[in-house]
TrEMBL record:
InterPro entries: AldOxase/xan_DH_Mopterin-bd_sf (IPR037165). This is Xanthine dehydrogenase, molybdenum binding subunit. Its EC number is 1.17.1.4. Keywords: Oxidoreductase. One of its GO terms (molecular function) is xanthine dehydrogenase activity. It is an enzyme of class 1 (oxidoreductase). The keyword Oxidoreductase applies. It comes from hydrothermal vent metagenome.
Amino acid sequence: MVLESDSGPGPYNAKGIGENPCGAIAPAIANAVRDAVGARIKHLPITAEKGFQALAEGEDG
């Protein structure tokens, strides 16, 4: 979000009033997969193939 004001540090005197919380989504999904399946996938994107590979290799974190 951007808030226009008379004293903002950004272009057109705008300043940020919120941060994007998307940084926590991928780790949350990875932990849910780990809890459900028992194998940790350490690299994105999380795919079924990576899940099968982690199970075959016995990766549990």
